[in-house]
Design a protein that fits this description.
Radius of gyration of chain A: 21 Å
Order of helices and strands of chain A: HEEEHEHHHHHHHHEEHHE
Strand order of the largest sheet of chain A: 1-2-3
Number of strands of chain A: 7
Distance between the termini of chain A: 17 Å
Oligomer: heterodimer
Largest interface: A-B, 43 and 35 residues
Number of domains of chain A: 1
Radius of gyration of chain B: 23 Å
Number of helices of chain A: 12
Strand content of chain B: 5-15%
Number of helices of chain B: 16
Largest sheet of chain B: 4 strands, antiparallel
Helix content of chain A: 40-55%
Number of domains of chain B: 2
Chain lengths: 352, 430
């Protein structure tokens, strides 16, 4: 059986690459061996995640996951975005790609998550699990992948490079940060599972949110590769699509370790804030389902509302704006979250 | 005092102050040359301090432009030693008020009718007095309670006189000093700044513009401006009371939960600085009042938009990129951000900019940049820039850094952090 305990340095260890990844003139993480792109910090991290996952599966525990039917398609979809670019309406696409890059960069904040004291808050041992390595390399590696580290760009810089390659260094609209800020209101934090310690709940919420976003991103990657790789609308289809492909490959271990760690937690008994025993399954599933429903319902709605406004803003000729908006709407897939509010979501996967 | 006499007095006082300052620097230098000592070894701190004290005293007694000049110098840590910055930034706009007759005269001149026809009540005692204007509490004839900011009638004349005198002194200094510092850009900046501040209609417009940013945010309040009762020298606005944002005791007494006050306040300034590119550049505690929401949360009232500032297109994104790259210590991204913001080095030398960033980060509480520009960090940055005069710092950056440092000061009084990145990104549980 593969080892289950690793040091921080082992999880950070880098593959020996022959050639670095330079995206749009920016040195990024990872690189090439024999012409094949190799993700950063992947030498030990990847097999380690596989080993932890296998242990969980061997013990008969299911894995938490986001089924494809719950993943909202990227908005605008490929035909819509292509149509806008062909019409010369570049700004909404530039804005969308820039926001993706910033949100990816903010993924680095996962390193600030305060991990609870598992010895005190989890009844069973966490030794030899992904959980035990969250604060000992997994969060830090994730953070570095997203925002870059030292002289190497991460996904933030790679998305910017893909945007600049594909759209020929477009003007970035000045309201990008405004969109981002008004999209994530700072409200009073509502406890989702008050029986848990606040720190435990916060960690589960953060991990659930990131895992859901990472799952949703799968469609975004496909969208961006298709769009930026389309010679009809992309200035450098080959390189732009390749950069997105590199990001997509780098994201795989993120989905995997978050899936494994959350599943490990749901397979255990948690000790609540007042010392009561709480089923990890109940706590994790409740939080995960709630976050998934919220994000899958709100995001497409918000994206639709915003893009309608943006198209109108980007085109001064109101008559032309109306024509483009109508055609744009026609290309909408009309996707909606498939469940009513009170339905339990199917979020478990029994892995082989 | 007649205008001519006043002009002569002000010219003489400015000239005398400048001469004293200059001699305090030059005399030790001449001694060093005579005694063949290395002037670089001399500790200049006490000389800087004495000069700053004298300028401060002259400004407080002469008011007008000199107070404003002190305030500008007090923000230019990139140009002046810390003794000047610390001393002259204390030159707050709090001065003894002028008599009521002066205020009444301005109002009646500007509106062309008696004060009583506009206001049913007008307190003869000023609520606050500053270098350019003072504020009175009053009631409009329709019953609404208002604050009336009235400009001093002779202030434009005083400013013109002082600016002319200062330019003359600067020219004389440049002619006679072998290695002069160029004060003219600073005086140009001051002149531009005063021109804007003296037109209260602009301040009213700035308030309206900022109100527009928060029209859907019930936690931010900008006092209503009564435009029909505003002129170039008079602003009439809604009278608002509240607790000073950094007064912990008063916040507690008012039943305001301030546990997340800073993240909310930073979000407001983030929106102005990073997103809208137009911001209230003087967020000192006296300009931010707090009231309690029905649920006991902080509702903010922003006051005094005389220093509202427009930022160039894309500047907010540049600041964000700089903060973000500092957080991750991504050197290449940091350099791109410095350049995009308009930082320049003489030989296009990146190492100077990186050295500045490293010094700033080292001065943060944790040794890592986590989204907060503390006063210590901005001080360190400006120290580094002064020591490397080949660096050109964009004035907009200076103003933004100062605003963030002021917010950081408020945060520290409340035992919180002024983390700009925390306030804009998805919340990280902690």
């Amino acid at each position: 059986m593969a080892a289950l305990v690793y040091s921080f340095d082992e999880l950070m260890s880098e593959p020996a690459i022959e050639e670095p990844l330079i995206a749009g003139g920016v040195r990024c993480h990872g690189g090439y061996v024999g012409g094949e792109y190799i993700s950063p910090r992947s030498v030990v991290r990847r097999p380690a995640i596989v080993a932890w996952r296998q242990r969980l599966v061997d013990d008969g525990h299911p894995l938490i996951h986001v089924p494809e039917k719950y993943v909202p398609p990227n908005y605008p979809n490929y035909p819509q975005a292509k149509y806008l670019l062909k019409e010369g309406v570049v700004e909404p696409v530039t804005r969308a790609l820039t926001i993706i890059s910033i949100v990816e960069g903010f993924g680095a904040r996962i390193r600030e998550v305060r991990v609870p004291d598992f010895a005190a808050e989890v009844k069973e041992s966490v030794e030899g699990t992904a959980l035990a390595h969250l604060a000992n390399g997994l969060f830090e590696a994730h953070a570095r992948d997203e925002a870059g580290h030292r002289n190497e760009g991460g996904h933030k810089q790679m998305w910017e490079a893909a945007r600049d390659l594909g759209l020929a260094k477009p003007h970035v609209p000045g309201d990008v940060l405004l969109r981002l800020m008004t999209g994530s209101p700072v409200g009073e934090r509502v406890r989702l599972y008050p029986e848990l310690s606040e720190r435990m709940e916060n960690m589960i919420v953060m991990m659930a949110n990131v895992l859901i976003v990472e799952n949703f991103a799968a469609d975004t990657f496909a969208w961006a590769q298709q769009l930026l790789g389309d010679p009809e609308v992309s200035a450098d289809p080959e390189h732009a699509a390749h950069v997105v492909d590199c990001i997509a490959r780098d994201e795989v271990p993120h989905v995997d370790y978050l899936t494994v760690a959350l599943s490990e937690l749901r397979a255990r008994t948690l000790i609540g804030a007042n010392g009561d025993e709480i089923s990890g399954t109940d706590a994790v599933d409740a939080i995960f389902r709630r976050q998934l429903r919220g994000m899958a319902t709100q995001r497409p709605r918000l994206a639709r509302d915003r893009l309608r406004d943006e198209i109108r803003q980007a085109i001064t000729d109101t008559q032309r704006a109306a024509v483009i908006a109508r055609r744009f709407e026609d290309l909408d897939s009309g996707w909606a979250f498939p469940h009513a509010d009170d339905e339990a979501l199917d979020v478990l996967l029994t892995a082989a | 005092m007649g205008r001519l006499a006043e002009r002569l007095y002000r010219n003489a006082r400015i000239g005398w102050t400048a001469l004293c300052v200059w001699l305090r620097y030059k005399t030790p230098l001449w001694w060093d040359q005579l005694l063949r000592r290395d002037p670089a070894q001399r500790d200049m701190k006490s000389i800087h301090q004495r000069n700053a004290d004298q300028i401060f005293n002259a400004a407080v007694s002469m008011r007008g432009m000199l107070v404003k000049m002190c305030q500008v110098v007090g923000t230019r840590s990139d140009m002046f030693p810390p003794q000047y910055v610390k001393t002259l930034s204390q030159c707050h706009d709090r001065l003894p008020p002028r008599d009521f007759a002066t205020v009444k005269q301005v109002i009646e001149e500007d509106f062309g009718r008696p004060l009583e026809e506009i206001f049913s009540e007008f307190s003869p005692h000023a609520v606050a007095a500053a270098s350019l204007a003072q504020v009175h509490r009053a009631r409009l004839v329709d019953g609404r309670e208002v604050a009336v900011k009235v400009q001093y009638p002779d202030i434009e004349h005083i400013i013109r006189t002082d600016l002319t005198a200062s330019r003359r002194v600067a020219a004389i200094y440049q002619r006679f000093d072998s290695n002069p510092m160029d004060f003219l850009p600073l005086l140009d900046e001051l002149q531009r700044h005063l021109k804007m501040e003296l037109d209260f209609r602009r301040e009213a417009q700035s308030a309206e513009r900022i109100r527009g940013f928060f029209v859907n945010d019930p936690t931010v309040r900008i006092p209503a401006i009564f435009h029909e009762h505003c002129t170039r020298r008079v602003i009439t606005m809604e009278f608002v009371e509240g607790v000073k944002v950094n007064d912990r005791e008063a916040l507690e007494k008012a039943g305001i939960d301030y546990s997340d006050l800073m993240v909310r306040l930073m979000r407001i300034f983030n929106q102005m600085i990073l997103a809208h590119g137009f911001f209230h550049a003087d967020p000192h505690p006296g300009n931010i009042l707090v009231n309690a929401s029905p649920r006991g949360k902080a509702l903010f009232t922003l006051l005094d938009f005389g220093l509202a500032k427009e930022l160039p297109d894309g500047f907010g994104l540049g600041i964000f990129e700089l903060m973000f790259s500092m957080m991750t210590f991504n050197e290449s991204a940091m350099l791109r951000a410095f350049r995009e913001l308009g930082f320049e080095t003489r030989n296009d030398d990146d190492s100077t900019l990186l050295m500045i960033a490293r010094r700033m980060i080292a001065r943060s509480d944790t040794g890592a940049f986590q989204g907060e520009f503390t006063e210590d960090m901005t001080d360190e940055m400006f120290d580094a820039i002064r020591e490397n005069p080949v660096v050109k710092v964009p004035i907009d950056f200076v103003l933004v850094a100062r605003a963030f440092a002021l917010l950081s000061g408020i945060a520290h009084t409340l035992g919180q952090r002024a983390n700009a990145l925390d306030a804009m990104g998805p919340a990280v549980a902690g």
